[in-house]
């Protein structure tokens, strides 16, 4: 007759699905969509598709910027929801080192995304006397969130046991690429000179055009010999989108790969 044996209970492995989902949507939000939104806002304002510079009554650059910026905000909030579910609503404890730092900086990024959405919904009229306040707050908040997102990802990657080196390499390549593409676009922008932003006047229009001055709207002007430069800018921005996706995909794959 068989005698019963003592069995040691085996702890169930923790399900990290929501944690990986958090990382996935945050990578897509800030590596792919946020960078696209920033580049279109700064460099894509004179871009045309054929002879058209407007889509559904708004400038093409603004429609694209608004769409990808909304995607960034939605994915950021979704990622925040995922990590809250994973942590069962608890915040990371201060003694958890880099994970706590990641949570704090990440929280600031989430707040910036919410502020951006709130400001965009309640922004004043383009011709309003206080419009410049919105313009600069919108720029500064967006740039702050974008620049904080990079170290936030780097910090959490350094805490991983598996695939850490590969993920650091990929993120480093992407960071270097962003610096390179911005330098190239800035050189083009400076080379085009005043024609980049066009002649500035106060008037009725959808959005801010002058990148450095007070709120104003560009007039119709003959772009002439600069049109090919704007086409190249569009190509570079689209190239950035492709490169960002190409680097984000293997980063996400490594994130989900447990061994």
| Portion of residues within helices | 55-70%
The total count of strands amounts to: 4
Mean of pLDDT: 80
* End-to-end Cα distance: 43 Å
Strand order of the largest sheet: 1-2
What structural category characterises the helix and strand content?
Answer: mainly alpha
The Cα radius of gyration reads 23 Å
CATH architecture annotation:
Up-down Bundle
Series of secondary-structure elements, N-terminal to C-terminal: HEEHHHHEEH
Q: Overall 3D geometry?
A: globular
Main sheet specs: 2 strands, antiparallel
| Number of helical stretches of at least 4 residues | 6
Runs in which pLDDT lies below 50 for 5 or more consecutive residues are 198-223
The fraction of residues in strands falls at under 5%
Stated plainly, the CATH topology is called Four Helix Bundle (Hemerythrin (Met), subunit A)
User: Under the CATH scheme, which class?
Assistant: Mainly Alpha
> How many structural domains in the coordinates?
1
């Amino acid at each position: 007759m068989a005698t019963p044996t003592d069995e040691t209970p085996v702890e169930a492995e923790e399900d990290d699905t929501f944690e990986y989902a958090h990382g996935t949507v945050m990578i897509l939000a800030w590596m792919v969509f946020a960078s696209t939104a920033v580049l279109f806002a700064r460099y894509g304002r004179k871009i045309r598709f054929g002879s058209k510079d407007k889509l559904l009554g708004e400038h093409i650059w603004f429609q694209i910027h608004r769409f990808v910026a909304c995607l960034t905000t939605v994915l950021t909030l979704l990622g925040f929801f995922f990590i809250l579910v994973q942590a069962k609503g608890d915040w990371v404890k201060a003694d958890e080192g880099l994970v706590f730092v990641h949570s704090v900086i990440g929280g600031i990024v989430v707040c910036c995304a919410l502020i951006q959405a709130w400001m965009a919904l309640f922004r004043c009229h383009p011709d309003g006397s206080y419009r410049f306040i919105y313009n600069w707050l919108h720029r500064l908040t967006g740039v702050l969130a974008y620049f904080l997102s990079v170290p936030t990802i780097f910090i959490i990657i350094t805490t991983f046991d598996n695939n850490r080196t590969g993920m650091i390499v990929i993120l480093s390549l992407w960071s270097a690429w962003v610096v390179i593409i911005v330098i190239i676009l800035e050189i083009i922008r400076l080379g085009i000179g005043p024609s980049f932003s066009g002649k500035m006047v106060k008037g009725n229009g959808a959005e801010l055009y002058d990148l450095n001055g007070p709120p104003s709207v560009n007039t119709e002007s003959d772009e002439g010999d600069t049109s090919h430069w704007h086409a190249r800018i569009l190509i570079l921005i689209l190239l950035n989108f492709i490169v960002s996706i190409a680097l984000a995909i293997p980063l996400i794959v490594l994130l989900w790969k447990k061994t």
